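How a chain folds remains the central question behind the approach discussed here. This step matters because it turns folding into a mapping between discrete strings. The sequence in question and its structure tokens are set out directly beneath this paragraph.
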Amino acid sequence: MECEADTGWRTLTLHSIVTGFRYEYRVEMVHQSSPSKNIVREFASDFEVGECWGYNRFFRLDMLASEGYLNTEADVLVLKFQVRQRTFYQKSRDQQWYVSRLHIRLKSA
């Protein structure tokens, strides 16, 4: 799955998530001068093919600069996004799916 969404409230990109399992994910917004003020949210969700979504209440846009998360001089906002499988079986299944997709691409190239 490839998903890119930008609604003005959030931007989120997900690549190559296999459906049918629950994934754990973590979103961290980095404070520009004080790492102790980083905002972290952790969740577990089921992802469907073609599904694009994000958070409309992660942080207010009008407060990003004043609270120190947006560097207005460099126009930089740092978000860290991590996704992981919940089980070894799920990780193995995802890797097998990914390898099979690579084989299909190689055959068609």
Summary: Residues 2-108 form one domain. The first strand starts at residue 2 and ends at 6.
